[in-house]
Specification:
The chain has about 230 residues and is mainly α. Helices cover about 65% and strands about 5% of the residues. The chain contains ten helices and five strands.
Length: about 230
């Protein structure tokens, strides 16, 4: 049974983002194959993909390592998101489907309810799903892929605090969905831009211990390989 490289890639990326593999740490094919319970072939393919995404660098005579973005590169990620998320919202206002609206409205209802109850961890997940769905509603696979990669990299580089007024933050989400539902691209763009700007103060650069690798066993989900 051959494990799909994209499943291995997702597992390695998740471990990089969560800090299991620290920035600058070495990634050997044998080490990764043992960790995820796969052969070296999908590991090799996954490392090439992660290098193209900027999570991994290959050094001559030293092999693959987790990348070490500079503070300027990390700041650029937030600038790119501030440009692309409003574009995605504007496209969503023009191209969204009723299915997208249903999901977005459901997430806003849940987010507002959890915000009133102070359930912060739920809000973090719901916020991620909201922005992922909004990107998908843009009807642009290329833009959706860029925004997904940006979210992964921002989660890798930054710790994000919960807003002091989560009810207000979810009211902003609701206003964005209302603009998208009305087909008002410019208002959706402006509201999303303001929302992104307000979230900047919640981001704190993560500090790492270079070279440290936390030990935990991560077996790749093989369900997709059996289908």
């Amino acid at each position: 049974m051959r494990i799909p490289a994209h499943s291995v890639c997702t597992a390695i990326r998740d471990d990089i983002v969560s800090g299991v593999f620290e920035r600058g740490s070495r990634l050997t094919e044998d080490q990764l194959a043992r960790r995820y319970g796969v052969s070296r072939v999908p590991i090799r393919e996954a490392l090439r993909t992660l290098e193209s995404e900027g999570f991994v660098v290959t050094r001559r005579h030293a092999g693959a390592h987790v990348a070490e973005p500079t503070e300027q590169e990390a700041a650029d990620l937030l600038d790119m998101r501030a440009l692309l998320e409003p574009l995605g919202a504007a496209r969503a206002a023009q191209r969204r489907t009723e299915a997208h609206l249903k999901v977005l409205r459901g997430l806003v209802r849940l987010g507002q309810e959890r915000a009133r109850r102070g359930q912060g961890e739920d809000l973090r997940s719901l916020g991620g799903w909201f922005h992922e769905t909004l990107a998908q509603a843009s009807g642009s696979p290329a833009l959706t892929a860029l925004l997904t990669q940006l979210r992964h990299k921002i989660a890798w580089m930054y710790a994000v605090e919960q807003p002091s007024q989560p009810v207000e933050a979810w009211a902003e989400h609701g206003a964005i969905v209302d603009a998208v539902a009305r087909g008002d691209a410019e208002r959706a763009r402006a509201l999303t831009s303001l929302h992104a700007e307000r979230s900047l103060s919640l981001h704190r650069l993560k500090r790492t211990e270079r070279g440290r690798v936390r030990v935990s066993q991560h077996v790749v989900n093989t369900a997709s390989a059996r289908n």
